[in-house]
Each structure stands twice: as C-alpha cells, then as structure tokens.
Design goal:
Radius of gyration: 18 Å
Strand order of the largest sheet: 1-2
Shape: globular
Oligomer: single chain
Structural class: alpha+beta
Distance between the termini: 28 Å
Strand content: 5-15%
Number of helices: 7
Order of helices and strands: HEEHHHHHEEEEH
Helix content: 25-40%
C-alpha cells in the first residue's frame, strides 16, 4: 500500500486494551441496571470461564473491595471481568457490535479475556473508538462519523451536502453516569489518565489502555 494513501485514523487497527472496558463491560452493565457507580466489587484472585482463566492486574496484587468508580479510575482488571460476568459475553459483544458499531469484531472475540481486557483479534480503529466514546457525551446517542457537512462553490451554492443519522445507543442517564466515571479517570486521585488533564478549566474525560510493553 502506498503510505501516502494510508489513513491511520480510519484504516490502522490497534489493540484497545483497557480502553475497551467502558464499552464492553461498564456501559452495558450500567445501561441494563446491573451496576451503579457505587456498586462494590472485590478486587481479588479469581478463576473464571471454561478455561479456568485467572486474570491479573497491571499493578501488583489485589486491592479488595472498591466501588465501580474506583475500579474504572484505577483500571482494575478483576472488577471489569466480574462486571462482564454479570452481563454475559453475548450481551457485551452485542453492545460493541450493535450499539457502539465496532466493525472489526469476530467470533473468536467472544471470550472473557478479549472483551474484559481488550485484546481483540483484529483490533479497532481510532475513528470507531472515538465515535463509540462520543455516545457518553452526546446523551447516549451514537453518531456515525462523517468527513464533511457541506461543499460550496465560489458563489456559495451548495454542491454537496452530508449528514449523519444518530441512534440511541444507551440511555441518557447511563451516558451521564459513564461520563462521570470517565471524568474520574483523568481527574480522580488514583486516575490512570491524570497526565491528560487540562488546566484551562476544560472538562476532560477519558480512559487509558495499554497492551504490549505498556
């Protein structure tokens, strides 16, 4: 492929790591009423699934009881796996594919490790991740990305017009809760994304995700 024609935002596929957790586990669980921000989850050694998988955290050991808000803030893995277990792999996969419109998923991704920790077979694109995350600050509406809105000629006449339909991916209330959880990642005391906080008074939301070699 000619590198000059390679669009990294739309064509490059990368592993999302823990940045998948809000889409695959927490948002579906909030939206279906399984958890709230203050639901207590225990960060502990667990064995889960048919293959007897024992996930670990990015930090040493386990921290015991914590709220969902702290689990998202710290990007704790075991609470995310437990939340995925509450909603089920099929529900998680359905939200990613049908609500958040990630197009790269394959059947091999229907497992705890891929969905809870973000190790997907084909990865995801920046464009699709950005569109999915935008639902959290658009009252739960998913807006399909588009490149331009209008093209005008020299006299101001519209030559081309473009728009995108929106769909209600999650409830407005769920989106509000998710935005607050993502605010804590950047602004909270244990937030893994504190380095991305802005000091100019602009509210900042986000989620970290690491894969090979951090």
């Amino acid at each position: 492929t000619d590198i000059r024609g390679w669009n990294r935002a739309t064509q490059a596929k990368r592993q999302p790591g823990s940045s998948l957790k809000p889409l695959s586990a927490y948002a579906p669980a909030v939206d279906t009423g399984k958890i709230t921000e203050v639901t207590i989850l225990k960060d502990e050694k667990i064995t889960i699934g048919d293959d007897k998988w024992s996930p670990k955290n990015s930090y040493d050991g386990f921290l015991g009881d914590m709220t969902v808000k702290e689990a998202v803030m710290r990007s704790s893995n075991i609470p995310a796996v437990k939340v995925l277990d509450m909603i089920g792999v099929s529900t998680s996969f359905g939200y990613l594919q049908n609500k958040f419109h990630l197009s790269t998923l394959v059947d091999d991704d229907k497992n705890y490790s891929s969905l809870a920790l973000g190790g997907l077979t084909k990865g995801v694109s920046v464009e699709e991740m950005a569109a999915a995350y935008s639902t959290f600050v658009n009252s739960g509406k998913y807006i399909k990305p588009y490149t331009y809105s209008q093209v005008l000629d020299s006299s101001g006449q519209v030559l081309l017009s473009n728009s995108s339909n929106s769909t209600q991916a999650i409830s407005a209330a769920s989106a509000y809760i998710m935005a607050d959880l993502l605010y804590s990642v950047v602004n909270g005391p244990y937030g893994t994304g504190r380095g991305a906080a802005l000091s100019s008074g602009i509210s900042t939301y986000g989620k970290t995700g690491t894969t090979d070699d951090d």
